[in-house]
Amino acid sequence: xxxxxxxxxxxxxxxxxxxxxxxxxxxxxxxxxxxxxxxxxxxxxxxxxxxxxxxxxxxxxxxxxxxxxxxxxxxxxxxxxxxxxxxxxxxxxxxxxxxxxxxxxxxxxxxxxxxxxxxxxxxxxxxxxxxxxxxxxxxxxxxxxxxxxxxxxxxxxxxxxxxxxxxxxxxxxxxxxxxxxxxxxxxxxxxxxxxxxxxxxxxxxxxxxxxxxxxxxxxxxxxxxxxxxxxxxxxxxxxxxxxxxxxxxxxxxxxx
Length: 256
Hints:
The protein is mainly alpha-helical. The chain contains nine helices and no strands. Helix 4 (57-68) crosses helix 6 (95-122) and helix 7 packs antiparallel against helix 9. The longest helix is centred in the last third of the chain and has 64 residues, at 187-250. It is elongated, with a radius of gyration of 27 Å.
């Protein structure tokens, strides 16, 4: 008789085992776990488990990296944090930090991609380094995916884009000037107040025009950076793939 699952910690361990299962056995293991949860009276948990998607072969390799090389995966996530900070600095014109952070992330990404390829060869699968690299790179800067990556429970492949660069950025809010209304103003005070209001209205109108121009310029700059980031991500993917292939060609004896 299957062992009933009654507590969450036990379920978490079962989920870890599930995502460590080879892709060919995933569906059977998932359905078995869902059935045992249902028998234990955990109907909601059983339904959630039943909906888990079978990882692709490349995704399975990525999940195993979190189990076999957790320190390197953590280093990649830390590099992703530094890259996000550097991207914000780049909007202020500080490009040196962005170049250094990108180079560091690329180095870590290349190492993990090679390890993922080795895992697939060990399991008897052909390797797709582009898909491994893309998922690792995207997960490193995505707040939801990075947690699943660290747990080794990613259920779908990811694509690196330039828009993650701006996630979480703090945008300063507008402050509105407070206007004090004098009590029982005299005619002279009232005239001065009217003149001041006229001047303030002119200043506000000009500030609005300037703000609109600045917002448009900022939007263009952000769009350009997003596009550049996306192109850089794609270029990095190609570079990682090319470097892995070069490493294999230069060292044929090390190939599994």
